[in-house]
Amino acid sequence: MAKITTTPGYQNTILFRSSKTTNANNTTASIGLWRITGTIYIVKLGGVVTTNLSSNHTAAHFRLNDQTAQPAITLATGTTMSSLLAGSAFGRTGLAAVAVTKWDNAAGLVLEAGAAGTPI
Question: How far apart are CA 114 and CA 112, in angstroms?
Fold first, then answer.
């Protein structure tokens, strides 16, 4: 589902949402989120866990897939997402050399930008 929204500082923003289920068992799974042709500018990239995860969800990361190369857009060694509970979140918060950040709902937290006026 794509939705055109108005975001302060960004014009003609398109919000893409995708719901995916992982069902890999003791194997590597690559799950496509969207298929986009052309050039895009990504403002935010992340997700929310909607069903409790089991163990062995390791090395989670985002990457592109152009069929001939799969460059990582977060650290390819990834982040362990094992046993995250529903309501936990994860996202790209830095450069490609930085692992996916996870926010586990088991501990209270507040998401805030690194500086005033900077999007989270």
Answer: 7
> Up-side HSE of residue 9: CA atoms within 13 Å toward CB?
4
pLDDT of residue 117: 64
Q: Which amino acid, one-letter code, is at 77?
A: T
Contacts of residue 80, defined as CB under 8 A and 6 or more positions apart, other chains included, come to: 57, 58, 59, 60
Give the model confidence (pLDDT) of 1-45 as tens digits. 555 555 566 566 666 777 877 777 677 778 877 777 777 777 788
Query: What is the pLDDT of the chain when averaged over all its residues?
Result: 78
87 phi, psi to nearest 5 deg: 100, -15
Strand partners for 90: 47, 102
Residues facing residue 101 across a β-bridge = 91
**Residue-level pLDDT at 43:** 76
Rounded to whole angstroms, the Cα distance separating 70 from 25 reads 23
The residue among 12, 11, 10 whose CA lies nearest residue 2 is: 12
